[in-house]
Design brief:
Layout: H1 8-41, H2 44-64, H3 68-81, H4 85-117, H5 128-134, H6 138-142, H7 145-152, H8 156-162, H9 165-180, H10 183-212, H11 224-227, H12 233-247, H13 252-262, H14 264-280, H15 282-295, H16 304-338, H17 345-353, H18 356-363, H19 365-372, H20 376-401, H21 403-442
Protein name: Lipopolysaccharide biosynthesis protein
Subcellular location: Cell membrane
Membrane topology: Multi-pass membrane protein
Length: 443
């Protein structure tokens, strides 16, 4: 273990993860403050409706969102390393144009579909207009270009700071809504203004960094003409878009399924459980975000990236196991204190879902390793199968066992996703080892 931390790459991953984690931990605490104000200031039914309004727009964004930050790292980092600034500039321009197009399309689609889903989601008629207006956030929710720029230019410190903007503003406006008695519209405003402000700050920071690196003209959107100068661009972005759309089922779509089967109150309880679970997984999530840029600079035919992936996986799994124990011991008191006794039913669900932390944190390097090995389609296929099985389990088990069934489905889905991602990763490693042996023999 001592030798692990002498590895400069691992130290770099941990340093970048530390920047991100500092912001995320502060954001998680402030996010709980906002949820606490909403939970105490609204009835369980209205709290559930607030979560539906937010997750609907968020889910619409997730379904159309292109992972342009991954594209910027995958194509832009090697270009900058080779000194090809025009290629790096084209990478950012293409990502920017893709964000604008997909965001506007997602907003229009979300607004058009909402009237047909309102009854199934039990969205009250008096709150329908607020939900419709909330969909105007989709274009900024889908934009990943500024985050990609900051990661490309190694400004993880700025990303860590930016991550506190949204939860800080959300907590402040939610507290004002609670004490002033603004009711449901006040809490919708808190969520809306916070999301919008956080996204705008990210764009501002990215634009400033591009000016500092003499790349300011990269913030001119380009699309088809720009893509022609970037071989493989469309294939990569479509694959990662589908992968992220599938991944969205584990958050926003899950909430909507629970809302449709069990109603807004159950959706609110499910949201509380997933929020606490996400907060507990932040350390591993930040390792993942620091791991991806570093591994994309390595040669997939060498042992170095695979060894780094194994070490990060073991460290992350240990953190996940420790956090799972903490959640089991402290979950009920935290829910009671933050949200109130009327939401304690969420703890039974959280107890089941918590053990997915160990599995998901151990498995997070798998997707990055497959992308590095140019096996993004294999990663997508694994996610498609796992998510389809998860949604089927979620629907069936929620019908059969109620809210507890949603927890069991989440746990089983996590196991399926990890197992199906592991298979092509092992295949890629064996193929690398075989090619390496052949190259040595030829030499």
């Amino acid at each position: 273990m001592k030798r692990w931390f002498q590895d400069g790459l691992l130290r770099s991953v941990l340093r970048n993860a530390g920047y991100l984690l500092s912001g995320k931990l502060a954001g998680a605490v402030l996010g709980l403050v906002a949820l606490s104000c909403a939970g105490r200031g609204l009835t369980p039914a209205l709290f559930g409706t607030l979560m539906i309004v937010h997750t609907y727009a968020n889910g619409a964004g997730a379904l159309v969102k292109f992972q342009t930050w991954q594209f910027i790292i995958r194509f832009g980092a090697p270009a900058l390393a080779r000194g090809e600034r025009d290629a790096a500039r084209d990478t950012i321009r293409f990502a920017f144009g893709l964000d604008i197009a997909s965001g506007l399309l997602g907003m229009v689609a979300a607004m058009a579909i909402l009237p047909f889903l309102a009854n199934w989601l039990e969205l009250p008629p008096e709150d329908f207009r607020l939900a419709l207006f909330y969909c105007t956030l989709v274009p900024t929710m889908t934009a990943a270009t500024p985050v990609g720029v900051l990661r490309l230019l190694d400004r993880f410190d700025l990303i860590g700071w930016q991550q506190t903007v949204t939860p800080t503003l959300r907590a402040a406006v939610a507290a004002a809504a609670f004490f002033a008695g603004w009711g449901f519209p006040g809490f919708v405003a808190a969520w809306y203004l916070a999301d919008l402000s956080g996204d705008l700050v990210t764009w501002f920071l990215a634009a400033r960094e591009l000016r500092r690196h003499d790349l300011a003209d990269a913030f001119r959107p380009g699309l088809f003409a720009t893509a022609r100068r970037l071989p493989g661009a469309w294939g990569f972005v479509w694959t990662t878009n589908l992968a992220h759309s599938v991944y969205g089922a584990w958050g926003s779509v899950s909430n909507l399924v629970v809302a449709g089967v069990l109603g807004p109150v159950a959706a609110g309880l499910f949201k509380i459980s997933t929020t606490l679970l996400d907060s507990s997984a932040k350390p591993a999530d930040m390792l993942s975000r620091g791991f991806y840029p570093e591994i994309m600079r390595l040669d997939p035919s060498s042992r170095q990236p695979w060894r780094l992936g194994l070490r990060v996986s073991l460290l992350s799994a240990a953190m996940g196991a420790a956090l799972a124990v903490v959640v089991q011991l402290a979950g009920a008191p935290v829910i009671g204190f933050v949200f109130g006794q009327k939401y304690l039913a969420a703890f039974g669900l959280l107890q089941v879902m918590t053990w997915s932390l160990v599995i998901s944190t151990a498995a997070f390097p798998l997707e990055s390793l497959l992308y590095m090995a140019d096996r993004q389609r294999a990663a997508l296929a694994a996610q498609l199968v796992a998510t389809a099985l998860y949604l089927a389990l979620l629907f069936v088990l929620t019908h059969r066992f109620g809210l507890a069934g949603a927890g069991y489905a989440f746990l089983l889905g996590t196991v399926l996703n990890a197992g199906l991602m592991l298979l092509p990763t092992l295949g890629s490693y064996r193929r690398r080892a075989s090619l390496h042996r052949h190259a040595e023999a030829a030499a």
